[in-house]
Batch of 4 targets.
Target 1
Amino acid sequence: MAQIYVSSTYEDLQRHRRAVCDVIRKLGHIDVAMEYYVAEHQRPIVRCLLDVRHCDVYVGIFAWRYGYVPPGESLSITELEYREAIKGERLILPFVLDASHVWPSRLVDRGDSGARIEALRSEITSRFVCGMFGTPQSLALEVSAALAKVGHWEPTPLDYEREQRLINTWRDARDPIERSRARSALVHMGSPRFAAILKDLVVDDARSLSTSMDIEDLITLCGNRAELLAIFQEVLRSGDAVKRAIVVFSVGELVLRGLRPADSVVKMVAQQANDSAGRVRKEVAHALGKVKDAGFGSPAVVDALRTLAEDTDADVAQTARRVSGGTREVGDDYR
């Protein structure tokens, strides 16, 4: 069950908001929206941004209105919520009204507000893979499909005695099948103690990894993206090239699964284009190719692929050129 923040202007999108909140509840999640606020001793914008920070997913709905700009602020509440979601590295699912959809002229901003919503829409559609909508029903379908894509099974209830038994089995059992079953059960129940064990294993320079399983399970168990980012950064500073390569590989796999990588994660991977190990630089090229193909390209991605395409290691350079589009110049898609 996830807490999902629904952000949009209000008067023009009331029916759309109701449709989205309904589908969120039908999927078994909690919708967090301004409609449910009661009188509190807080400025509305303070409460809104606090809710964005505490939610797991941000759903942004953008039509042709920029929205209310509170006194003392330079941005509308809707844009402030969007910026807060980016800042907090929430999972962002943006939906933009199709420009070809017939829309009442009274619900279209003009002048300065019109220019600002145009600029915001342009930024969002260039930065994210957006769902396009027209009617409330079409938006509900888009939101349902997006949430299903990033959704997950409910974890097994945490039982501390069973957790300890499984940890003992994972540590001590000689049968690899028994160890694998214990590991899967610990991950599925969201074991915090197993997460701590894996973190120590991953970041300990004295212990090596042969596969990506430890990191993949840690990704599943981490409480939030900020925690995971800190672990990735620590591993990428380690002296173990295999660990560094596995972290980069894991980021690429997350992108293939349909998860949008935070800008900070993309920049972190792009910086490894200068890694001392050729195997790591090759993995960076693979991962950034997946980021690019998923539509999450950025100047950092372009610059890193351009650097890798000129790498002194022929294998790295060939990989970078291939994922960048064959014989085309690296960066053509972003001009």
Target 2
Amino acid sequence: MLRVDATVDAEGRSSVAQEILGRWAHDAGSARFFRSSANFVYRFRRAGEPHFLRFADGAERRRADVVAEMDVVQSLADSGIKLASPVRSAAGRPVETVKTTLGTFHAVVLPALEGSTLEIEELDAAGFRAWGAALGRLHIAMGQLPDELIGRRRTWRDDLAIAGRHIPADARAMRRELAAVSTVLEALPDDAGSIGLIHFDFELDNLVWRDGEIGILDFDDCARYWYAADVVFALSDLFNGRFDSADPSYREFLAGYEAGRDPGPTWHSAAPAFLRVAELLRHARVLRALDLPPELQQPDWLARLHRRLADRLAAYEASLG
């Protein structure tokens, strides 16, 4: 991330982003930095219309996973779900793999969705119902995708295995938590009504609201899990680590969901386990992020972020006992 972000000038232009964007038609000189994390994202215009370039280092994401994601997105768009479907490159491909002096990157272009993103404090009861209804519609559409397409996405078992590789042997509390949540999940039903492809990150920052419709962004983490987990992951800011089935906002969300889809019998009983999974995976990613080479010269902002993440990880481990 540091190497790519170092190419960004004072006006938000990047030579690497421009090189990658050259695979698509675009308005010259319009690309500007938007954000960077696992993905690098740049805004640009194409025939005057706003679009986003998104690319990831090949060491972070496999091309096959990005292609599978775009196939899922296109299939959902074809079924009527409101989302940003991939724009094909000049060569006719939804995903381009570009070798640069900084490495190999897998890139996609997506149109910007018009509308507003909302904060959880801005939602009234009707807003929570609309949010839940949108997730219910998405789950119905995802459940109708071909098995071949769903099978190309990772599973909850993959996630726990990846977490296990990043949790060191001496992190005993996290190791115990990994074993405990694995046992709980293994005992849950795995029928087609309970488990399938989920968005995984259906939080408000990935939703765009306009004229009573909700557009959906960011499918790069979609995976095969329990549908109930998607609700818990979406409402993680509301629960703040503690599931409360009596919370009025949760009840409104669930009412919206149930208007279109039956959540199934294990919904409430499994919810606390899914909160634990979300926390475990989040902190396993923190562990990975903290695994920086000791000789790396960190800029001040990175050193401050490193300290904050280390404090967050320590607090989580302490909470596990």
Target 3
Amino acid sequence: MAKEIKLKLKEGDIAPAFTAETNGGGKVSLADFKGRNVILYFYPKDNTPGCTKEACTFRDHFADFRKKGAVVLGVSPDPVKSHNKFVEKFTLPFTLLADVDKKIVEAYGVWGEKRFMGRKYLGVYR
């Protein structure tokens, strides 16, 4: 049975501000997208089965999101170098944010205790 996660933010809350390095070597802030719809998705690790499936699903529906004026941003604790390889390998058309210090995942309440095969560890909630 999956553990229920109580997220820090609720619908209607103001999204916490952030600035992060991106794949390709740039930087982006949430404020850069003021007035636009932003799909901010969190994932544990580049090039892992579940995270790859999730990223490729966003890739496969990217044109639909763009038609609606939405911006897609993926966030994980992986460094820019890892993101660059992930984007290239799977031809991801959206930006990935490197949250190596975990400030974004903590601000959004998606960093916490997880379990896998009886082992507890800290990680990113999808």
Target 4
Amino acid sequence: MQSVKVRRSQISAEQAAEVIRHQLGGDYQVEPDGATMLHVRKGLAKARVSLRDEPGGTVFDVQGEGSWGVLPVFNLYTKMVNERGIARRTASLLGEAQAFREEG
């Protein structure tokens, strides 16, 4: 899991989803799941993002998810691949997003 802290606080899952959609492009599905969680998907690539407020900003915890199949080893393998791929890319773009750099 990768954690990224940004200066802006009180960020909603919908606001975060909008920024991620804009950065990743239309091939990715980015869907809020409640007020503090969202899912990022493209094919078998999946990541879960949870948000939490802390003093001085918001922390995004980004984790790759596995794809359930017949073999448990497939789930573990896809989780590892997604942790290094889509989760890392999502965490990086959240940390660099201009929209989250200042209070607003």
